[in-house]
């Protein structure tokens, strides 16, 4: 041990010779470099630091000499270490930032740390034995030949490359970066916490475990060489494996939950099980398209996913395959494994479409209760459908053929699902190379189409048949299935049952449409389109065909007739109040001829019922008028207006629009506090309608344009009561509305309707109270207005239309009815603009059982 200080002596070179160990514990100032030609030269020990300066040469052979760091604190060295000797980090934390070229072994003792930063490297070292900590997180490019030991390697967010790896590492690789084996082999027997990625070059291999119960990784692996999992107890791997390299799994039971996209070969050794997924939506090996790799399975391959997955590679070997997940597994490869297949849950498709008709599985296949087998390919063995299991050829959406080269056996509680297509005559078909042992039941699942009741479909062909199916069912409401048997075939026929179309209806409208279709019979394409529907689909079709929107149109337009009455009534009302400072607030003056204009809009909702759909509508328009106060006390006037109203059925299946033209005549007279107001109104409606019709394969849009009209007369009596600045007026109003429409001829296809002309008369009686309160707004007379009333309707409240199909078959359907009783509310504000002009704005709404309407109005009166 040398405890003295080597003073600064310029370019002095320190040379160590001899086989012993020289420990430097003093402060050094020489700068000429250090040569270690024998033994070991150690800088620092324990608490004694001895800084190293200059470059270090460790001789030209492995026996020449070695460099060691023993200070327990932090040491930084930026020089260059060269030669063939070893580097030992015995204690403390040593940081190297030089581009070192020495080729000897680098060893890091337990409790010690070697850190590389910047250009710091030990890449030509014969290897790094890590029993302490090796930190490359600060290095710009870290590479070593190999690693060993049981310590910690921290890559941080950087990466570490092994250029010629050998042996194993029992420690922990940590960080978010990567560790790549560029060449050689590495066995990991420790648990690595790396969350980034392991890389395996095309001339390299990575083995996780050594046949015992230690060694694991969780990071992704980019594999171009060979990746092996070798643990006797297996394990769960959630990372993602990609690349063209090979994978071997040997030992115990493995669960892979990552979406692996490897395209090389996978080997599962005898006695090993590999489960893809753990009941969730992920977990796979290989791909679903070209270059999906292959699996040589001599153990057990298990699929356990809740979502659908496809494997297009080839599975070979003597092992078996189990489908235990609730999702769908599709095998599109020509598989040759001979260990058999068990479908224990979910669904297995052998060939997912006609494109993969060559798909195959080897060995026998069994389908357990609750599981489904289908596809377009071939089973190169026998097939057993156990009690509760299901078989169908093709897929859930496409008719197809499935082949079984061995025997086919149905259990007593099994199910054979069969689809047929009335448009093409195609059906699901199972071909059996041996004997088909029949039991269980057949369930017919029909596609939408036009079915010939005498058509026969071959659904199973075998070398021979044994037994018969227990029964057959169908989801068609009006066709029933019949099975037929020969020595080698099972056929399915569909025949018209004795259930009338009306027998499945649930509402009067559905009944009316179904009865009309029944009268048309098989000659009608609509009738034949209904036959292959189930009950719910049939009733939806009847609703679609009914044209109930036409029946609801009258109720909607009669309800909107109040907008014209309200506009005229608002103009006539004499409600007055005494404003602040004696100013008279009035909605009407008296001497000259005023011109007025009023805009209005409303939004309404009418609830439906089990029989009819509700609707949502809107209406708006503009009225303009002129009136004159006569010497006799009568106010007479006339008004013209235009507007637009529209509504949609709540399910969006139909819409109606109307362009409206209004004409109104009105008269007003007061006798003291008693006032009378009355008028006549006429509205011309230019109506357009659209509705969607969907019946099986029939999908049409029916359109119509027609005229309708509303004629109304109304009268009102009110009695004025003054209370200071407030005025109240109890009133009674009576209105009669006559609505009529022309006949309607829809265009749009076979489901078009002809609707008879409609005529309805409705009377509305209203009892209520309105009031106003006058005040001054910055010197201008102003008022607040409001009203509340109860209104009862009489007459033709129920909506109905007489319809018929263009081919005949008349029926009557209901629409939304007019509400019998509603409460109306009004609130507004008025302002005198001077010179006899006036402006008002307000809200008007009505509320009743199943109906709500909200409206806004604005009126401007000017006197000339």
From TrEMBL:
Residues 277-290 have a biased composition (Gly residues). PROSITE patterns: AUTOTRANSPORTER. Residues 270-290 are annotated as: Disordered. The keyword Signal applies. Residues 588-864 form the Autotransporter domain. It comes from the Bacteria. Keywords: Signal. SUPFAM superfamilies: Autotransporter, Pectin lyase-like. GO terms for cellular component: outer membrane. It holds the Pfam family Autotransporter. The keyword Chaperone does not apply. Gene3D superfamilies: 2.160.20.20, Autotransporter beta-domain. NCBIfam families: autotrans_barl (TIGR01414), autotrns_rpt (TIGR02601). This is Autotransporter domain-containing protein. It comes from Cereibacter changlensis. The lineage of its organism: Bacteria, Pseudomonadati, Pseudomonadota, Alphaproteobacteria, Rhodobacterales.
């Amino acid at each position: 041990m040398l405890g003295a200080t080597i003073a600064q002596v310029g370019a002095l070179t320190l040379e160590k010779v001899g086989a012993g160990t020289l420990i430097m514990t003093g402060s050094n100032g020489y700068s000429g470099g250090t040569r270690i030609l024998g033994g070991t030269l150690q800088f620092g020990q324990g608490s004694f630091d001895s800084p190293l300066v200059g470059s270090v040469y460790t001789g030209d052979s492995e026996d020449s000499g070695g460099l060691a760091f023993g200070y327990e604190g932090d040491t930084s060295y930026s020089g260059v270490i060269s030669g063939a000797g070893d580097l030992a980090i015995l204690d403390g934390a040593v940081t190297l930032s030089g581009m070192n070229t020495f080729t000897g072994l680098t060893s890091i003792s337990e409790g010690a740390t070697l850190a590389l930063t910047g250009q710091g490297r030990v890449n030509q070292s014969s290897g790094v034995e890590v029993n302490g900590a090796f930190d490359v997180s600060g290095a710009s490019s870290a590479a070593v030949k190999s690693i060993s030991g049981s310590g910690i390697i921290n890559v941080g967010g950087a990466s570490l490359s092994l250029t010629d790896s050998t042996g194993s590492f029992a420690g922990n690789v940590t960080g978010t970066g990567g560790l790549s084996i560029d060449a050689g082999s590495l066995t990991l027997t420790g648990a690595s916490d790396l969350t980034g990625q392991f890389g395996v070059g095309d001339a390299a291999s990575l083995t996780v475990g050594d046949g015992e119960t230690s060694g694991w990784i969780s990071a992704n692996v980019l594999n171009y060489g060979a990746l092996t999992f070798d643990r006797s107890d297996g394990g769960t791997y959630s990372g993602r494996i990609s690349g063209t390299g090979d994978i071997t799994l040997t030992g115990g039971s493995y669960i892979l939950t990552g979406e692996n996209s490897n395209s090389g070969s996978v080997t599962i050794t005898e006695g090993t099980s590999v489960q893809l997924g753990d009941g969730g939506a992920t977990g796979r090996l290989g791909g679903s398209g070209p270059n999906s790799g292959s699996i040589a399975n001599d153990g057990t391959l298990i699929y356990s996913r809740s979502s659908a997955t496809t494997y297009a590679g080839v599975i070979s070997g003597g092992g078996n395959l189990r489908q235990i997940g609730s999702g769908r597994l599709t095998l599109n490869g020509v598989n040759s494994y001979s260990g058999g297949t068990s479908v224990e849950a979910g669904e297995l498709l052998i060939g997912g479409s006609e494109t993969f008709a060559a798909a195959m599985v080897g060995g026998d296949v069994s389908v357990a209760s609750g599981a489904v087998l289908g596809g377009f390919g071939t089973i190169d063995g026998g097939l057993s459908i156990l009690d509760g299991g299901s078989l169908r050829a093709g897929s859930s959406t496409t008719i197809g053929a499935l082949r079984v080269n061995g025997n086919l056996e149905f259990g007593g509680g099994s199910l054979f699902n069969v689809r047929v297509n009335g448009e093409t005559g195609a059906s699901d078909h199972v071909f059996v190379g041996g004997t088909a042992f029949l039991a269980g039941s057949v369930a017919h699942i029909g596609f939408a189409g036009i079915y010939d009741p005498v058509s026969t479909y071959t659904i199973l062909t075998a070398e021979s048949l044994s037994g018969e199916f227990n029964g057959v069912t169908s989801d068609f409401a009006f066709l029933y299935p019949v099975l037929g048997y020969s020595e080698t075939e099972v056929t399915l026929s569909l025949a018209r049952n004795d259930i009338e179309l009306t027998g499945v209806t649930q509402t009067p409208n559905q009944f009316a449409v179904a009865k009309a279709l029944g009268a048309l019979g098989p000659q009608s394409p609509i009738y034949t389109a209904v036959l292959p529907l189930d009950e719910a689909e049939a009733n939806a079709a009847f609703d679609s065909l009914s044209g109930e929107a036409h029946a609801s149109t009258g109720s909607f337009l009669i309800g909107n007739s109040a907008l014209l009455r309200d506009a005229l009534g608002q103009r006539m009302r004499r409600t007055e109040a005494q404003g602040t400072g004696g100013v008279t607030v009035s909605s009407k003056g008296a001497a000259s001829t005023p011109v007025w204009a009023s805009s209005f809009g409303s939004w309404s909702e009418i609830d439906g019922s089990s029989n009819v759909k509700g609707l949502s509508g809107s209406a708006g328009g503009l009225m303009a008028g002129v009136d004159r106060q006569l010497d006799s006390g009568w106010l007479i006037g006339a008004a013209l207006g235009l507007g637009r109203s529209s509504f949609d059925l709540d399910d969006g299946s139909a819409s109606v629009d109307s362009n409206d033209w209004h004409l109104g005549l009105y008269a007003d007279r007061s006798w003291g506090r008693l006032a009378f107001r009355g008028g006549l109104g006429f509205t011309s409606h230019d109506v357009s309608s659209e509705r969607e019709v969907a019946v099986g394969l029939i999908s049409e849009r029916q359109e119509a344009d027609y005229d309708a009209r509303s004629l109304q007369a109304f009268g009102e009596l009110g009695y004025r009561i003054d209370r200071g600045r407030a005025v109240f007026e109890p009133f009674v109003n009576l209105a009669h509305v006559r609505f009529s429409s022309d006949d309607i001829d829809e265009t749009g296809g076979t489901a078009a309707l002809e609707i008879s002309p409609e005529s309805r008369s409705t009377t509305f009686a209203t009892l209520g109270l309105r009031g106003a309160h006058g005040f001054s707004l910055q010197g201008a007379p102003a008022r607040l207005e409001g009203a509340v009333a109860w209104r009862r309707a009489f007459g033709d409240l129920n909506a109905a239309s007489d319809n018929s199909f263009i081919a005949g078959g008349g029926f009557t359907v209901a629409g939304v009815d007019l509400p019998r009783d509603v409460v109306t509310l009004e609130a507004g504000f008025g302002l005198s603009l001077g010179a006899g002009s006036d402006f008002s704005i307000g809200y008007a709404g009505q509320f009743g059982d199943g109906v709500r309407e909200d409206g806004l109005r604005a009126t401007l009166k000017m006197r000339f």
